[in-house]
């Protein structure tokens, strides 16, 4: 088969970006995430499905920690821009809430119903909305940490320069869309040449907030490479960046370190939020 990217053909690229196949017990993992997320919603003080735009999935959940003058975490879920929902990952809010942060769980329209251009635009509208609504939410003048996982990490990296964001935590982020466009993932994404360039954060570092780039030590090599190269590019551009390899964590188990109050990502979040 024809070599397409970094010595990989289509089959190799498909495997290199197939996190589901890399986790033998993936259905059980997701079932556990969903069950714990349901429990979080039942226990937390939550306002669900608040609107930030006109399309059905332009909505977010606001979960208050109950502490005065608290920072806020905005979390963008993954799913390769084409799967999953905020309700699948609400469990991650447990750690930040316990550590005194409010949590916003972001939703967005998925491919193929939305192009990458539309998806990126929706997250921009969410952040604009949160900025305009700071008085009502009680977040004015308080830190706002933008965080996302996988595809959500990509969207986090896209907006580390947004004026309401004070720090960023992209987890297992997909910052180079070229290999994505050559793999099975593009069957639904249908990335254009313009989108590959414009929406690859690795190619456009720019000025932004202090950023902690996190990736699991047991993730697929391409995921590790993308995080390593992004952190290096940020550093070369003179941006404040820290790279964190979380030992032993897969693409999904890394989220446990955010969900646990004493987990390494939960503690890193406390640090970057200045809590």
UniProtKB/TrEMBL annotation:
Pfam families: BD-FAE. InterPro entries: AB_hydrolase_fold, BD-FAE-like_dom, GDXG_lipolytic_enzyme. GO terms for molecular function: hydrolase activity. Keywords: Hydrolase. Residues 69-158 form the BD-FAE-like domain. Gene3D superfamilies: alpha/beta hydrolase. It comes from the Bacteria. PANTHER family: AB HYDROLASE SUPERFAMILY PROTEIN C4A8.06C, KYNURENINE FORMAMIDASE. This is Esterase. It comes from Burkholderia ubonensis.
């Amino acid at each position: 088969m024809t070599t397409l990217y970094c010595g990989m053909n289509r089959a190799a690229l498909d495997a290199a970006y197939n996190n589901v196949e890399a986790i033998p017990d993936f259905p059980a993992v997701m079932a556990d995430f969903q069950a714990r997320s349901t429990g979080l919603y039942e226990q937390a003080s939550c306002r669900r499905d608040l609107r930030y735009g006109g399309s059905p999935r332009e909505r977010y959940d606001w979960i208050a920690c109950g502490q005065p003058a608290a920072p806020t975490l905005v979390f963008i879920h993954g799913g390769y821009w084409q799967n999953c929902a905020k309700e699948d990952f609400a469990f991650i809010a447990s750690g930040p809430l316990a550590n005194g942060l409010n949590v916003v769980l972001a939703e967005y329209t998925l491919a193929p119903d939305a192009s990458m251009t539309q998806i990126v635009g929706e997250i921009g509208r969410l952040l604009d909305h949160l900025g305009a609504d700071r008085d009502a939410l009680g977040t004015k003048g308080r830190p706002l940490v933008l965080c996302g996982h996988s595809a959500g990490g990509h969207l986090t990296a896209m907006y580390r320069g947004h004026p309401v964001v004070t720090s960023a935590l992209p987890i297992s982020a997909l910052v180079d869309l070229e290999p994505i466009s050559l793999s099975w993932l593009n069957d639904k994404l249908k990335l254009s040449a313009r989108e590959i360039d414009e929406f690859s954060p690795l190619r456009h570092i720019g000025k932004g907030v202090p950023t902690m780039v996190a990736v699991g030590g047991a993730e697929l090599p391409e995921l590790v490479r993308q995080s390593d190269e992004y952190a290096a590019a940020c550093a070369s551009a003179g941006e404040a960046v820290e790279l964190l390899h979380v030992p032993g964590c897969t693409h999904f188990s890394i989220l446990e370190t955010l969900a646990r109050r004493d987990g390494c990502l939960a503690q890193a979040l406390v640090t970057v939020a200045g809590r």
